[in-house]
Every structure is written in structure tokens, then in C-alpha cells.
Amino acid sequence: MVAMVTFLSVLLGIALFAVVGVLITGVFVFARGGPTNDRWSNRLMNLRVATQAVAVLILGAILLLRHH
Known about the structure:
By secondary structure, the protein is an all-alpha fold. Helix content is 96%, strand content 0%. It has helices spanning 2-32, 34-67. The radius of gyration is 15 Å and the shape is elongated.
């Protein structure tokens, strides 16, 4: 059980870094503007939401395992 929580904690860290990476990339694309913004802004927003959902699911699994 402890090994699983540790593994999920590492995955959570990776997921959070992914969220931050996508967020920063989206900010730079937005600041740049033009056709690059038109092509990538919606994709990056969807990717950010997906990575946040994965991070929340991992966090939920950690809390569930620690509770039991």
C-alpha cells in the first residue's frame, strides 16, 4: 500500500509539471498572437484541462488509498 501511494505521488508530481508546462506554453502562444495563436490556443487549453483532470484523479486515488 505504501509503495502504491509513493508511486502515485511521483505520478502526481509528473502530472503537475505537465500542467504547468502546458500552461506556460499556452501563455507564450497567446502572447505571440497571430496564426500560431489561432492554431494552438484551443488545443493547448484542451490539453491543460485534460492534464488537470489526470492530476485530480491521481490525487483522488492517493487520498482514497491513504484513507483505507
